[in-house]
Specification:
Shape: elongated
CATH superfamily of the largest domain: Mu homology domain, subdomain B
CATH class of the largest domain: Mainly Beta
Low-confidence stretches: 1-19, 300-305
Number of strands: 45
Number of helices: 3
Strand content: 35-45%
Number of domains: 4
Strand order of the largest sheet: 24-34-33-27-30-29
Helix content: under 10%
CATH architecture of the largest domain: Sandwich
């Protein structure tokens, strides 16, 4: 128990250095207040020691020594350029790392499959025209490519001639299509050129494929590359056409005419100057070729003699044709044939072939599908000397001839023949009927009353009926309409009604060409009365006068190709070279003395074209008091892409009177002074 505190007496520790039981016993027992003061003193001492310990931690260095806080040491930060240098070094190391990874794993020269292969071929060639397939290959890698082997897949109708590797002749293996090529070093390029030609149908697409295998570096596996290219046959260098009736008579002699024309300068190749022609008749028809003849040909130059085609029979259905010449405007041959039996869907397949040792190459073919007629009395309708379908121009004259013939053994009495004409573009007001035929709507009828020869047509008798009509001129009402026209004839015997399919002639169907038109004006003044010419007017002797020629081309109905206009200059008229055009190109052909405006393709969206050029004339004494012909009439020509017909139109001649120039005609007689 703690003793009660004595009032008014201090308590303190004396002689603190002494310790021991005696001193402790000798002390008086502390009072309660003294004990409390003692505890406070102890706690204060412990707190001071703890604070000292924390301060020692704060003011000690890493080695445990005391830090002198009597003064302060300030450390400076690194300068800016040192920081920048560190960043640059870091970026450089990063770039080097990326470059290393790229070079090791991603660079093209490490790609063993990076060989570049390209097969180059012309887009369009003429059949038989020699050209090159060029196989270019390049090694962009760091490896050497060896064991290079090229295999060509040619079009079926390609004929190989020769090959060169980097201009050095090489020999193919395995039938002219395989080539063992030399090693290709890193960065090396090589080119193999294969020469040959294609004999195939016009507009045919001929695909060639190049396949190349190679061994890169020390690898054990071969790699493969492939490329392809297509070539279109744009034509033969000449045109081939046939003429035959679309209705033929069984067991009677019929004709097929084959024409060769439209030779392009320099495009008739030696391969096509001679060839074989084959005829294939429907099975069961008993069709046979009776013979062939070559007709006279028209020379393109008056100094050349007319030349016939050479014909040699090879078999019952084939003939060899030679002597085809580009110097001729037209060469033709006629084949006589007969069909013994009537069959459904009868047809005659005609093909032109070039024969080589290994095979025959077909480069032209056509199928005729005439109707077979079982009648001894035959009718054959001819339009403008042809029984073929043909394209016509607006304003054309249609001259029809209807030939009838009794090839049987009995006579035909009271024959009535009727011709039927159909087409909105026919101008019936212009119809002229021969042999007193009677018109009824769109038909013409001949009987024994109009033509006494029809009272009886004896065996072996034949005759001809003629009539003609015009095609209407173009007008805007024709836009969007069917402008096709047709004509055929039928007969009846003994007053019977005209009907049936055995008494009908061939049918001629005509498509109407587009309304291409060229307007030409020669002027000294334009429409605004501004002078576009120069020099004296009318022209004077030894003085140069210039005129401006205006051309306007109009076309509405169909797309045209190979469109051009030509102006043949008289000897005393010169082309100055000045010109203005919307489209195409205009040039002067010095040899032909022609100004030519070549346009090419003309779509229907472009219905009006304009161009102009300048001419000059310097009259001589011989021209005095004469009116000079400045233009003999210009010609515009084109091929209608819808009808396939050739359109040809010519303008009226123009003189120094300048018929198209109203201002000039006020004081211009046109006579040279």
């Amino acid at each position: 128990m703690i003793a009660k505190k004595k009032q008014g007496k201090d308590f303190s520790l004396k002689n603190q250095k002494e310790s021991g039981l005696a001193s402790f016993v000798a002390r008086p027992i502390p009072e309660e207040g003294e004990i409390i003061d003692f505890e406070k003193a102890v706690n204060r001492e412990l707190r001071d020691q703890e604070i000292d310990s924390h301060l020692i931690d704060v003011y000690s260095d890493k080695k445990g020594g005391r830090v002198d806080v009597s003064h302060m040491n300030i450390k400076k930060k690194p300068k800016f350029f040192l920081s920048l240098l560190k960043n640059i070094i870091f970026v450089a190391l990063l770039v080097a790392l990326v470059n290393f990874v790229y070079n090791q794993y991603f660079r093209n020269d490490n790609d063993i499959s990076s060989l570049k292969l390209e097969l180059i071929a012309p887009e369009r060639v003429v059949a038989g025209e020699e050209f090159y397939y060029e196989v270019e290959y390049f090694n962009p890698s760091k490896f050497v490519f060896s064991e290079i082997y090229l295999e060509m897949q040619y079009p079926d109708n390609f004929i190989f001639d020769s090959a060169t590797l980097n201009s050095i002749p090489v020999l193919p293996e395995n039938g002219n299509y395989a080539f063992k090529l030399e090693t290709l070093d890193s960065g090396e390029r090589a080119s193999l050129k294969i020469k040959g030609y294609i004999l195939n149908l016009p507009e045919s697409v001929n695909l060639a494929v190049a396949r190349l295998t190679y061994l890169p570096g020390t690898f054990s596996s071969h790699f493969k590359k492939e490329d392809s290219s297509s070539t279109i046959i744009r034509g033969l260098g000449f045109l081939v056409d046939t003429e035959s009736s679309n209705a033929i008579f069984i067991n009677q002699e019929n004709e097929i005419k084959i024409f060769f024309s439209g030779f392009d300068d320099g495009l008739l190749t030696e391969k096509l100057s001679e060839f074989d022609i084959f005829f294939d008749f429907s099975d069961g028809s008993g069709g046979e070729i009776l013979g062939a003849t070559s007709s006279l040909s028209l020379a393109s130059n008056e100094e050349l003699s007319e030349e016939k085609l050479s014909l040699e029979k090879l078999s019952a259905f084939s003939w060899h044709i030679a002597n085809l010449s580009s110097l001729m405007n037209r060469q033709e041959t006629t084949f006589k044939y007969r069909v013994k039996n009537k069959v459904d869907a009868f047809q005659v397949n005609i093909s032109l072939r070039h024969r080589l040792s290994d095979k025959e190459y077909v480069f032209w073919q056509k199928t005729l599908k005439p109707e077979l007629v079982s009648s001894d009395l035959s009718l054959n309708l001819i339009l403008n000397d042809s029984s073929n379908d043909q394209a016509l121009n607006f304003g054309s004259d249609l001259n029809y001839s209807l030939h009838y013939s009794n090839k049987g053994t009995k006579a035909y009495q009271d024959v009535v023949i009727m011709a039927i004409l159909e087409g909105e573009v026919l101008d019936f007001d212009s119809l002229v009927i021969g042999q007193n035929g009677e018109r009824s709507a769109n038909s013409i009828v001949w009987s024994k009353n109009e033509l006494p020869a029809l009272r009886e047509i004896k065996a072996g008798t034949e005759g001809e009926i003629n009539f003609n009509i015009k095609v209407k001129d173009f007008n805007s009402n024709f836009l969007g309409k069917n402008l096709e026209l047709s004509a055929h004839a039928q007969y009846s015997v003994g007053g019977k009604e005209i009907s049936g399919a055995e008494n009908i002639s061939n049918k001629i169907i005509n498509k109407i060409n587009s309304d291409l038109n060229l307007k030409e004006e020669l002027r000294y003044f334009n429409d605004d009365n501004y002078p576009v010419g120069s020099g004296p007017l009318p022209p004077e002797v030894n003085q140069k006068t210039e005129f401006r020629v205006y051309w306007t081309i109009e076309n509405n109905l169909h797309e045209l190709r190979e469109l051009k206009a030509t102006f043949n200059l008289p000897a005393y008229v010169n082309f100055t070279g000045r010109q203005e055009l919307e489209v195409g190109s205009l040039y002067y052909d010095d040899d032909l003395r022609q100004v030519v405006w070549e346009i090419g393709l003309l779509p229907t969206s472009k219905y009006l074209l304009q161009g102009s050029f300048y001419l000059s004339v310097t009259p001589t004494d011989n021209d005095r008091d004469k009116i000079l012909v400045l233009s003999p009439g210009s010609i515009v020509s084109a091929i209608d892409t819808e009808t396939g017909g050739v359109i040809l139109s010519k303008t009226e001649p123009k003189t120094s009177r300048l018929e198209d120039d109203d201002i000039a005609q006020m004081n211009n007689s046109g006579r040279v002074k």
